[in-house]
Amino acid sequence: MRKIVLITGATSGIGEACARKFAQGGYDVIITGRRAQLLANLKKELEAEGVRVLALAFDVRNRNAATAAINSLPLEWQQIDVLINNAGLALGLEPEYEGSFEDWETMIDTNIKGLLTMTRLVVPRMVKRDSGHVINIGSVAGDAAYAGGNVYCGTKAAVKTITDGLRIDLAHTSVRVTNVKPGLVETHFSNIRFHGNDSRAEKVYEGVKPLTGADIAEVVFYAASAPAHVQIAEVLVLATHQASGSVLHRDTSK
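The structure assignment produced for this chain is given below.
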């Protein structure tokens, strides 16, 4: 039987790249996200390549919608082998004392509570089967705060400790838990952070070759493909000229 992967936030960036990578790797794919049309487009594209795809449009911040979506899974889709908690975002880069309450709530509700909701809904079945893998997309920002990162860094630090805690809770089972922590990745991340300010977002990547969503998908797939007795607990993935969340060498000569 083909394995099944469920990916949150699959309409763009790392999530979309993971959907493509796992589809190429022989998985049946459950893609989720808020934007139904983008999900439909990706589903059509992957199905044209002979992949079985189930698209579920909901926001991970909405616990009732997430619960309804998981409870509605047809029998042949219920055995989720890999859960990729990818849905997440950063909003704003202001000092903490000038931050937006709305931005904070959105980041906390998505990056932390949404991840917990999906984990709670999917992992009990993995425990019952004594098989499965949870891969959380964290961030280098979870290792140390950087200027303006405050609440976003806090949410990714929470992802790290929540992932570690889940691994401890599952140590008596064969369910594996991985935290993949990307550095600078060129996706819509910065555009969303700056509320659609394209010129400001583009400056984030000036003078450096950033990672791509496909780069991170390769690492995620590698972790999922390790032998059953191997648990890749944590992976920090940085661009070559990035040393940490706050140290980045930019070539300004070009």
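Interim note for the steering committee: The first strand starts at residue 4 and ends at 7. The chain has eight helices and seven strands.
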